[in-house]
UniProtKB/TrEMBL annotation:
Full protein name: ABC transporter permease
Matches recorded under InterPro entries: MetI-like, MetI-like_sf
Cellular localisation: Cell membrane
Residue stretches making up the ABC transmembrane type-1 domain: 56-234
One cellular component term from this protein's GO annotations in UniProt: plasma membrane
Keywords attached to this entry: Cell membrane, Membrane, Transmembrane, Transmembrane helix, Transport
Highest taxon in the source lineage: Bacteria
Amino acid sequence: MRTLRGLLLPTIGMVAFVLLWEAAVDVFRIPSFLVPAPSAVYEELIAFPGWYAEQTAYTAMVTLAGFVLAAVLGFLFAVVITESPLLDRLLFPLFVALNSIPKVAIAPLFLIWFGTGALPKVAIAFLVAVFAVVIDASLGLRSVHPDVLDLARALRGSRLKVLLRIKLFAALPSLFAGLKVAMALALVGAIVGEFVSSQNGLGQVILSAQGTFDTARVFAALTILAVLGVALIGAVDLAEHLAMPWRHRSVRRQRPRAAAAERQLDPAAERQLDPAAERQPDPAAERQPDPAAGRRPGAAAERPPGVAAPRQATG
């Protein structure tokens, strides 16, 4: 039921957005060369389905190649800088400096070095995506508690065993978070590479349609890119569920327990859930005796020992 609800709500939102877009173009009479209607974008897509599929496959291939390189080499680099403080101080500043350079400025060099094929686009996608993998993987590898590492060393665990059996499992949540970001960035890098020089791909489709003011074709390519990005990130999310099934099961179990514990710790929240609880008398207050209940009329209250009675005024 929860999965169906998770799919239904985004679908409703997307359909509502498309309907509002179509209505806005029709009501405000927006020219088609500025913003085309969704119906015009759909007609463009169904007019050349095979050609769009070919361009999408090329962009997806470049994206996946850059992503795989970023995932493998980025994780290995994260292992190196976390296992060796000397290499961390030596290499990480250079890595940050390289990442600070705009990739569009490096793209012409890649064309000179690797030619005009798919290799320079893969290199740009790799450079754009690798930084996210390195940062999140290194944070995950460093997240192991020092006491756990001391215990592993006391049990004569080798450095490789500690890395594979302790640090790797501790780094999986952060690693997959970085992989999701890296997948989106790899797609961006592939499009940037196709903008610079390419005869194929969705980036080349957008660039060529821009010169002829064919905005319907531009929006068609953007729509395919959006669907492709969601599909690729969804594939990484599926891999995360398969690699860490225990984590998602524990999260589902902890949600109702956390809600129950929060209600027990917050009486105000309990009263909001049950307004009749405010009207119920407190049994402890009913059991407390009233000091004046058993006293005779006119009798003075009992005085503590050592306290003299007050003097009465005489007339």
